[in-house]
Amino acid sequence: MRLIIAVDGPAAAGKGTLAKSLAASLRLPHLDTGLLYRAVARQMILAGLDPSVDDGERTAQALQPADLLRDDLRVPDIDRGASSVATQPPVRAALLKRQREFATESGAVIDGRDIGTVVFPDADLKFFVTASAGVRALRRYQQLHGASARDEAALSALTAEIEARDRKDAERPVSPLRQADDAVLVETDSMDAGAVLAHALAIVRERFPL
């Protein structure tokens, strides 16, 4: 099955987990585009650049596959750095071609923040995955510290940080985060990863019977 499926949504809503599982279930390639921006931010920091003020275009153009495999891309400073470089039009332009080439030949499940609105506006199917900021903060915190970890002060600070990033992503002038008009909304506050996958697969199979 050659399909292009766009999965968009804010940070820690579960879009990456859904996209990866959906791709495996449908035997399609998967691309986490957020990882591209994280890798750009990390490479800039390693080069002594500040993602919040320095131009990341050359770093984006020089990005290598191995840069996406680092184990230090999902930490708070890279969260902030990725959000900053994502506001730079030259960086987005440098990564746009890479994203489109990835899916064009054999189809793919691609997750990010502007896949259904900018990267693949004509995708065969679009999902917009979201959850409340508090739920997303808890997921991100436990991802970093363990499934049973809970620190109310840290969670409060992380919730505020996620809300600030949501505003920044939604208000940026280039490719802002928003739900595509034809996207299927998936709210994951009360759904675990298995339930979200089952729901999405049912929609795929309804629209594209095997």
UniProtKB/TrEMBL annotation:
Belongs to the cytidylate kinase family. Type 1 subfamily. This is Cytidylate kinase. ATP binds at residues 9-17. Keywords: ATP-binding, Cytoplasm, Kinase, Nucleotide-binding, Transferase. InterPro entries: Cytidylate_kin, Cytidylate_kinase_dom, P-loop_NTPase. Residues 5-205 form the Cytidylate kinase domain. Gene3D superfamilies: P-loop containing nucleotide triphosphate hydrolases. GO terms for molecular function: kinase activity. Its main location: cytoplasm. It is found in: Cytoplasm. It is an enzyme of class 2 (transferase). Its EC number is 2.7.4.25. The keyword Acetylation does not apply. Pfam families: Cytidylate_kin. It catalyses: CMP + ATP = CDP + ADP; dCMP + ATP = dCDP + ADP. It comes from Asaia krungthepensis NRIC 0535.
